[in-house]
Design goal:
462 residues; Uridine Diphospho-n-acetylenolpyruvylglucosamine Reductase, domain 2; Uridine Diphospho-n-acetylenolpyruvylglucosamine Reductase, domain 3; Vanillyl-alcohol Oxidase, Chain A, domain 3; 8-stranded antiparallel beta sheet; 15 helices
Length: 462
């Protein structure tokens, strides 16, 4: 039992809000993006600034509380929360400052991708990130981060040049190329294992209006599209990022009603180069493939593309993720994809292959904790539906699909596409970087205070 006076003292130390079980706002505050996850923390500290984070870390450590760090709350297995412990909720810390001369962006950890896009777009800039604007920028960055700008400008973590952070002992540090370099390296893909990041500084790039959007083909053309895509991608200019999906047309506007509920193969593309070259860049998609049932590619502001799918994916849906990195896409793997995608348990369930070639391959292997520099795609199988009664069915489909295609993958997965899958999967994901990460973990968090994550355990004493 926690001492009441200690709780009162902790509460008084916060500029933000402390929410406890039984408080009026508790049920709303504990909700996560993934409605399949139901966790009941003892208390939630909604931090307003770095001083609040320091207070929360010190309180949790002194009272031996299991502690979870929540940014956007999008984490698949709900690792932004915990049962019976303290959640350090960073959602109030959502300031963004753009330096248009240096083309850098300083963002606080409660920012969504949409917050950052909104701020940078005014200056004709963008930070490489994901594909859904409601995603929390903190978890995205710490896991690696890939999306529409990855082939040209690299992973989100490749564009991370500095952080401010609170360590497990409550101390405050800055990590960049000249101080605490090992910590910055670890935070570039090593997840929330090492510190609470209170400020991210990114390199931004000139991106404003892009030529982008989805193209849909009926399922009967899926094999043709997938075979064409695996050959086209290596030849595509780095400014063109196209990811492929096996999906279903949602039965809702703005999709044409005659196609509602149809299983499809989709290419969702973004060309971020000169607009006068865009139509030539995407011409092979239009000229070398069967006639699509929908082609919505065209010029649009980059933030519009980033938020395009937000209405389909509101907070609270049931989600079950499985992922892997993929080097090649042989015919045998395509057969498996088509077989299992045809059994999708809901309209929102999907498989996506996101390109992570181009600039990702050009970065040095030692530049970040993120390990799979030689992959071609990051695969996600996502089972999604609003009905909690379908949770078991969703999980079963995703697991069966993944088990069938896993032999054709590279073994490890993008940590932001993993559920809680055990230590072996974490080690497979970080590969040859794991031992170095474990040593850095021992240096900065020797007692594994930050353990509610895809956990990297401190290196054992020699």
């Amino acid at each position: 039992m926690l001492d009441g006076a200690a709780i009162e003292q902790f509460q008084a130390s916060l500029r933000g809000e402390l929410i406890q079980q039984g408080d009026a706002g508790y049920e709303e505050a504990r909700k996560l993006y993934n409605g399949m996850i139901d966790k009941r923390p003892l208390m939630i500290a909604r931090c307003a600034n770095t001083a609040d984070v320091i207070s929360a870390v010190e309180f949790a450590r002194e009272n031996k509380l299991l502690t979870a760090i929540r940014g956007g709350g999008h984490n698949g297995p709900g690792l932004g929360s915990c049962d019976g412990g303290l959640v350090i909720d960073l959602s109030l810390m959502n300031g963004v400052r753009v330096d248009p001369v240096q083309r850098t962006v300083r963002a606080e950890p409660g920012c969504t991708q949409g917050d950052v896009d909104h701020a940078t777009h005014a200056f004709g800039l963008a930070v490489p990130a994901g594909i859904v604007s409601t995603t929390g920028i903190a978890g995205l960055t710490l896991g690696g981060g890939h999306g529409y700008l990855t082939r040209k400008y690299g992973l989100t973590c490749d564009n991370l040049i500095e952080v401010d952070a609170v360590l497990a002992d409550g101390s405050f540090v800055t990590a960049n190329a000249s101080q605490n370099e090992d910590l910055l390296w670890a935070l570039r893909g090593g997840g929330g294992n090492f510190a609470v990041v209170t400020s991210f500084v990114y390199q931004a790039h000139p991106v404003s209006t892009v030529y982008a959007g989805p193209v849909f083909w009926e399922a009967r053309d899926a094999r043709t599209v997938m075979e064409w895509y695996r050959d086209f991608l290596p030849k595509a200019p780095p400014e063109l990022c196209s990811f492929i999906g096996l999906k279903t047309v949602p039965s809702t506007d703005p999709f044409p009603q005659e196609h509602w509920g149809k299983q499809i193969c989709a290419l969702i593309s973004c060309y971020s180069g000169p607009l006068d070259q865009a139509k030539d860049a995407v011409a092979p998609i239009r000229n070398e493939l069967p006639a699509p049932i929908l082609d919505w590619m065209g010029p649009m502001p980059f933030p519009h593309l980033q938020g395009m799918f937000d209405p389909l994916l509101p907070e609270g849906l049931q989600w079950y993720w499985k992922g892997d990195f993929v080097k090649d896409l042989p015919d045998a793997a395509i057969d498996i994809h088509l077989e299992h995608a045809a059994k999708a348990p809901s309209e929102l369930s999907l498989m996506h292959l996101y390109p992570i070639d181009g600039a990702v391959h050009q970065a040095g292997r030692d530049s970040a904790a993120w390990n799979f520099r030689n992959a071609t795609w990051s695969m996600v199988i996502a089972a999604i539906d609003p009905d909690p009664g379908k949770a078991d069915k969703l999980a079963a489909w995703a697991r069966e699909y993944w088990e069938a295609v896993h032999p054709h993958t590279m073994g490890g997965a993008y940590v932001n596409f993993m559920m809680e899958e055990g230590e072996d999967r974490v080690k497979a994901t970080y590969g040859e970087n794991y031992d170095r990460l474990a040593a850095i973990k021992k240096k900065y968090d020797p007692d594994n205070f930050f353990q509610v994550n895809q956990n990297i355990k401190p290196a054992a004493a020699v």
